[in-house]
Fold:
Amino acid sequence: METMNYDKIKNKSNIGLISFVTFIVLGSGVVAYSLINEEQPRIIGENPLVEVSSPNVVDKEEKKEINYTITNVSRTNNDSSYKSNITLPVIKIDEVDLTDINEEIKQRFLNKYDVLQENSDENFENEFLYKVNYKKYETKVEDTTLLSLVFEETITAGKTNTFSSKNYTYVIDLTQKKVLSQDEAAPLILGYAYRNKIKDDLKTYVIDNNIQGEEDYNYSITGLEEFYIKEEEFHMVFNPAEPFDEKHGIIDIIINK
Structure:
């Protein structure tokens, strides 16, 4: 009796074990089949795994070449005691006048001539020659084209007596179509320590050329001085008596970089 019960329990255990193993095998097969036949995920849009060639990136817009012209306009008067021989530039970029700049230059010198006529009795004994010519210099600094104009003005009273001789300057950024101040132009040539360079070189020049002694020198840069750029060199211009003694004439100093 006891032997029969043991055999029944043993048979039941074998059946359970077989069932468990069968379940594991079948389950593994189902999982494997699912993995094999699983639909691959679809990628919406471009496949990020596909290498795409990068377009050429331009860091800076290519600068267009500045096409400018300068023609002369003259005002000459030899028919009176108040003579003039004035030559001024008319600047165009791509055949378009730089109207504001051209007009500013024109009015500066033509107005000066008119004022001289009004005061001629007092200063010139009713006779003078007012003469204006100019020189031009082009300088390219990276993507900027600079045009420097140096106007040479002389006033002669009577036949030979030169009453005045002065230089006046304009530095024009043709890229931006504007006249530059000293604080805008100097860093392009001298760097951002330009004020110290101008101060030091001016003092050295004045003392070395016996314009003033070191103990007398006290000039401070105002930023309003005449200046121009020629062959990538920065020039400072001081007219007679502005501020140094007029006996030294026009002082033109190259500031070292």
About this structure: The chain has five helices and ten strands.
